[in-house]
Amino acid sequence: MGEEAGSPPQGVILDAATTTPLSNYNFETKAYLHSQMGPWLQQNSAVPCQEKINCPPDLYIIEINLEDSPAQINGQPLSTIPTDFTLPEQAAEQLIDAGQQLLRNHPEFKRLLHDLYAEMAGFR
Predict the structure, then answer these.
(1) SS3 assignment for 62-104
(2) Of 2, 12, 70, 94, which is the most exposed, with the fewest CB atoms less than 10 Å away?
(3) What is the per-residue pLDDT across 63-115, written as a single tens digit (0 to 9) for each?
(4) Assessment of whether the complete model's pTM goes beyond 0.70
(5) d(CA 5, CA 33)
(6) For residue 97, which of 64, 122, 52 has the smallest C-alpha distance?
(7) Cα 29 to Cα 8, 22, 58, distances in angstroms
(8) Residue 112 buriedness (CB in 10 A; 0-12 / 13-18 / 19+)
């Protein structure tokens, strides 16, 4: 089955058909989580917390996106690098490093680490 002149390649069509619905699903899931978090925490905090029993959980929503990284590979923003199985090792390492940097600098991740260290030390 040949491609007609002026038609996009099948890879482009497949990417659009799979990426857009997945992006919409992720957006809707995150929006739902954010909309339900307050009522859920309020409902769970109605029960008295005694000696770490029946206490409402601490939630840490940590969302990172390579679009937020200023790093580039060969002058190309990281979020535009195709992440397929043919990615050069150096580019893969740069993507991993950028993701780690974004995570380490995220305020909620810092709060999570602070709370975990405080609990391990017996301060919570």
Answers:
(1) CCCCHHHCCCEECCEEHHHCCCCCCCCHHHHHHHHHHHHHHHH
(2) 2
(3) 888 888 888 777 888 878 776 677 888 888 888 898 899 999 999 999 999 99
(4) no
(5) 45
(6) 64
(7) 30, 10, 20
(8) middle
Residue 55 DSSP one-character state: P
Contact call for residues 96 and 103 (beta carbons, < 8 A): no
Yes or no: say if 115 and 124 are a contact pair by the CB < 8 Å rule: yes
Cα–Cα dist 106/86, whole Å: 30
Q: Rounded distance, CA 81 to CA 72, Å?
A: 9
Single-letter residue type at 13: I
With contact defined as beta carbons under 8 Å apart, do 47 and 62 qualify?
A: no
Q: Whose CA is closest to 23, among 62, 79, 69, 92?
A: 79
Distance CA 90, CA 82 (A): 14
